[in-house]
Amino acid sequence: MTAELSNDRRRKSVWTTEPKSKPDRAPTYEILIVAVLFGWNLLANLVVPDLGAVLVAISGMVVLLVLARRAGAGWTSLGLDRASLGAGTRLGGVIFLLVTSGVVIAALIPPFREFLGDDRFIGVELGEMLYETILRIPIGTALGEELAFRGVLLGVLLAWFSPLRAALISSALFGLWHVLPGIEALETTTVPGLASGLLGVLSVTVQVIVTAGVGMVFCWLRLRSGSIIAPVLVHWAINGAAFVVGWLIVENGWI
Predict the structure, then answer these.
(1) What is the crossing angle of helices 85-107 and 197-225, to 10°?
(2) How far is CA 92 from CA 15, 131, 195, 234, 239, in A?
(3) Among 143, 154, 179, 150, which Cα is nearest to 61's?
(4) Residues 6+ apart with CB under 8 A from 50
(5) How many CB atoms lie within 10 A of CB 136?
(6) Tens-digit pLDDT profile for the chain (255 aa)?
(7) Is 219 in contact with 86 (CB distance < 8 Å)?
(8) Are 40 and 177 in contact (CB under 8 A)?
(9) DSSP 57-103
(10) DSSP 8-state class, residue 226
(11) What pLDDT, on a 0 to 100 scale, did the predictor assign at position 13?
């Protein structure tokens, strides 16, 4: 009975626990963190080529961690507590397998297969595919974005807001983070008419909203397990599986 009550409280506290006391200072570090995220996004999407994405991500993570620690965030609030690593690995690992299986099944359905195998995979060699799935996606995307949004940003916001409000802010910014990638994706889509005019704007808007929703799920994974490793694994599964399957579809002419 005691264990059940403890679990019930933990489920409720994921979203409803209020901070015991708010910081007695201006939110200077929080503003700087958002500014670093803005600069990181511009560098990664408009300035630095794909091969430099991992270096940009590593640099961004270091700067964000320094700012978060200066803001007073502890390793637990950042999702980096060693004690929560096991719980995060278990939760993220199960969902990793489910997501990967779902992408493979989707590739067997013609409309989804055409969506997965877009033009960005044309001319991609095996070495580039391995770089994307082993280095850029897990480190530059999954680890980088999860540390940024579900680690640092969520962690510092938890000092000011309830977990629900902190997650909503973090997820909204995560959605906006994908505006530039959404525009870039329109340039390689194989869906007729999607990249033009109002449909293009609508497509990017929907992507931002959907990504923000996914961000809320990632926040839940982080708060539920106590570790960012859970959303990192799931993020890697979504992006990595889609890239490998999309590459295989185009490479083998399965469209």
Answers:
(1) 150
(2) 19, 23, 34, 6, 14
(3) 143
(4) 136
(5) 22
(6) 444 434 444 445 688 777 767 899 999 999 999 999 999 999 999 888 777 889 999 999 999 999 999 999 999 999 999 999 999 999 999 999 999 999 999 999 988 888 788 778 888 899 999 999 999 999 999 999 999 999 999 999 999 999 999 999 999 999 999 999 888 877 766 555 556 677 778 888 999 999 999 999 999 999 999 999 999 999 999 999 999 999 999 888 876
(7) no
(8) no
(9) HHHHHHHHHHHHHHTT--TTTTT--GGGHHHHHHHHHHHHHHHHHHH
(10) S
(11) 65
Instruction: Report how far Cα 119 is from the mean position of its chain's Cα atoms.
Output: 23
d(CA 121, CA 31): 37
pLDDT at 246: 93
Burial of 180 (C-beta count, 10 Å sphere; 0-12/13-18/19+): middle
Distance in angstroms (rounded) separating the CA atoms of residues 61 and 201: 31
Spatial CA neighbour of 233 closest among 92, 98, 84, 61: 92
> Which residue shows structure tokens 């989804």?
112
Q: Exposed, middle or buried by CB within 10 Å (0-12, 13-18, 19+), for 183?
A: middle
Owner of token pair 């959605």: 175
CA distances from 215 to 66, 142, 199 (A): 23, 12, 24
- CA 61-62-66 angle, to 5 degrees, is 115
Q: What is the pTM of this model?
A: 0.88
Q: In the chain, how long is the greatest CA-to-CA distance? A: 60
